[in-house]
Each structure stands twice: as structure tokens, then as C-alpha cells.
Design brief:
single chain, 290 residues, alpha/beta, 14 helices, 50% helix, binds ligand C2E, binds magnesium ion, EAL domain-containing protein
Length: 290
């Protein structure tokens, strides 16, 4: 981990000292430099129509290409970013980079019009007074269409949503942006809260999808979320699908869209772009004048 890395760098005998000193402040500074210095990379994990395997959306997932430690997943730095507030510039960077990349794919492929882009928003970002203008500015700058963007929020945001937060989320909806609840089922969001928020998508957490075949409770939760989506007129996306059996079970219960290693892992931008072009090149034939 970071402390160990710092200790190694510092040399033997100074482990105690550096594991304390490479504290939150220093790690925060390193992370902020990474954001400013272009050490971050956005990977894209496709979400597919479960019935056909066609790519319907891509979710932006941040990675840190650390000069010493190599490619780090968000599990290694996103909590620190959230605690220190570094997630605010980090999140804006991810949104901008993802919108720019996806706008580029769209520009060369008229058939890719319906393709959606999903980007994760942290609770700290949602709490920023200037969230809406930040998002608007990035959309204007990159030319990415608001009605093809989905912003994913966590259940904790739903539970803590005060009137100002609800106002910001509504303003995002008014721009045409979809709002998804990520990892749905793991938190404590009361249905009454869910209902008064402008949420349009529920993402079933991977833990329930994992158990869908042999854990009756996990299976019931998946079914309940699918029914909830129907009742509230929200789309439902299953995450973390790793087997054909899980995909089949989800299709059987009426879940149309899914994401998971069984279909695609998160892909570096080039590979994601190649996949999108392969799929949508055929659709483009229809758009060309005869
Ligand atoms: P998430 O938004 O729920 O994203 C799904 C995570 O599950 C990703 O991990 C993805 O790689 C992983 N995953 C997808 N399919 C499978 C599967 O079939 N099996 C397994 N075992 N895992 C699967 P990743 O990329 O490590 O991201 C972890 C979390 O970090 C994300 O969970 C999200 O909450 C957060 N995150 C990622 N990027 C950002 C970002 O730009 N901003 C913020 N605020 N959070 C981010
Ligand atoms: Mg997500
Ligand atoms: Mg999720
Ligand atoms: Mg998850």
C-alpha cells in the first residue's frame, strides 16, 4: 500500500517515520498533482442489451497511472479523494475526459447516436453548489449531448438529500441528463426518498447478481429491484455479471441491460473506441445516402 511504498522509497529504518508522515496530507497532494499532471486515465466498461449483447452504454471508470506503482484502480485512491475533497477536481477531470473521448467516437459514427455514457459522481461532487454549471460547462466544451449522459450517484446521496441537493439533481434532469442510483440495494435508501428524487435508472449491485443462481435471498433482491423499476418507471441495469447463468436469470426476470466481466471488462480508451466502431459501423451503412 501507499505507506509501504513510501517506506520502501525512504529506505530501511525510516519505515515508522514515513508511514506516519506519508499521511493524508501528503497522499492528497500526490493525488492532486496526478489530476493536474495527467496521470489519470479513463477506462470504459460497456453495458449491453442482455438479449443481444449489443453495447448500449459505456461507464467511465477512473485509473491512476502512477509513475512508480503502476496502474491503480479507484479502490486504492477514491476514498482518500472523497475524504480530502480531491474528488471534486478529479471527478470534473473524469467527466471532461470521458465526454471528450465519447464525443470523438460519436463524431465519426452517426449510427452511434443512441450510445450512452455513464460517469460516477461522488457525494462530495453532488454537494458542490456549482455542480450544475460545472457539468454544463463540460458538456458545452466537449460537445457531448446531455441527453446521452447518465450520472451515477450512490444511495448515501439519496438518503442525505436536502432541498438544495434535490434542486441540483433536478437541474441536471432538466438538462436532459439521466440519473442512476449505483450499487442499489446495498445502502438504506427508503422507497419514499427514492420516489421524490429525479432518479431514472437503478443499478443492481454486483453482490446480488453474484448470488442470483444459488442464493434465494440475492435472487429475490434482484427480482424486487426489477419490479421496483417497473413500478417507478426507471430502467434497471445489472452490474457484475460474470457467468452466462447469471445473464440468463436476469433476462428471465425482465432485466434488459447488464454489465460485467462475462460481457466486457473495463477497456482502455483505444479498445473501447475500437469496439464501438465495430458495432456501429454496420448501423452507419443505413445512414449513408445511397
Ligand atoms: P462502480 O461504479 O459500481 O463500478 C463497477 C465496478 O465493478 C468497477 O470497478 C468495475 O471494474 C467492477 N466490475 C464490473 N464488472 C465486474 C464483474 O463482472 N466482476 C467484478 N468482480 N467486478 C466487476 P472499479 O473500476 O475498480 O471501480 C470501483 C468503484 O470506484 C466504482 O464502482 C465507483 O464507485 C468508483 N469509481 C470509479 N471511477 C470513479 C470516478 O470517476 N469517480 C468516482 N467518484 N468514483 C469512481
Ligand atoms: Mg458506477
Ligand atoms: Mg456500481
Ligand atoms: Mg458496484
Amino acid at each position: 500500500d501507499t505507506a509501504l511504498y513510501a517506506a520502501k522509497r525512504a529506505g530501511r529504518g525510516r519505515y515508522e517515520y514515513y508511514s506516519d508522515v506519508m499521511d493524508t496530507k501528503a497522499r492528497e497532494a500526490e493525488l492532486r498533482r496526478a489530476v493536474a499532471g495527467n496521470e489519470l486515465v479513463v477506462y470504459f466498461q460497456p453495458a449491453v442489451a442482455l438479449a443481444t449483447g449489443d453495447v448500449r452504454a459505456v461507464e467511465a471508470l477512473v485509473r491512476w497511472n502512477h509513475p512508480v506503482r503502476g496502474l491503480l484502480g479507484p479502490g486504492e485512491f477514491i476514498d482518500l479523494a472523497e475524504e480530502t475533497g480531491a474528488v471534486v477536481p478529479l471527478g470534473a477531470w473524469v467527466l471532461r475526459a470521458a465526454c471528450r473521448e465519447a464525443a470523438g467516437w460519436r463524431a465519426g459514427l452517426p449510427g452511434a447516436g443512441p450510445l450512452r455514457l455513464a460517469v460516477n459522481l461522488s457525494p462530495k461532487q453532488v454537494a458542490q453548489a456549482d455542480l450544475v454549471t460545472t457539468v454544463e460547462d463540460i458538456l458545452a466544451e466537449t460537445g457531448f449531448p446531455p441527453d446521452r449522459l447518465t450520472l451515477e450517484i450512490t444511495e448515501s446521496v439519496i438518503l442525505q438529500a436536502d432541498p438544495l441537493t434535490i434542486g441540483r439533481l433536478q437541474a441536471l434532469r432538466d438538462l436532459g441528463i439521466q440519473l442512476a442510483v449505483d450499487d442499489f440495494g446495498t445502502g438504506y435508501s427508503a422507497l419514499s426518498y427514492l420516489r421524490r428524487l429525479p432518479v431514472t435508472v437503478l443499478k443492481i449491485d454486483r453482490s446480488f447478481v453474484t448470488g442470483i443462481a444459488d442464493d434465494p435471498e440475492a435472487r429475490s433482491v434482484c427480482e424486487a429491484v426489477v419490479h421496483l423499476g417497473e413500478a417507478f418507471k426507471m430502467s434497471v441495469v445489472a452490474e457484475g455479471i460474470e457467468t452466462a447463468d447469471q445473464a440468463t436469470a436476469l433476462v428471465d426476470m425482465g432485466c434488459a441491460i447488464g454489465q460485467g466481466f462475462f460481457f466486457h471488462r473495463p477497456l482502455p480508451p483505444q479498445e473501447a473506441g475500437a469496439l464501438i466502431r465495430r458495432q456501429f459501423a454496420a448501423a452507419d451503412q443505413l445512414h449513408r445516402p445511397a
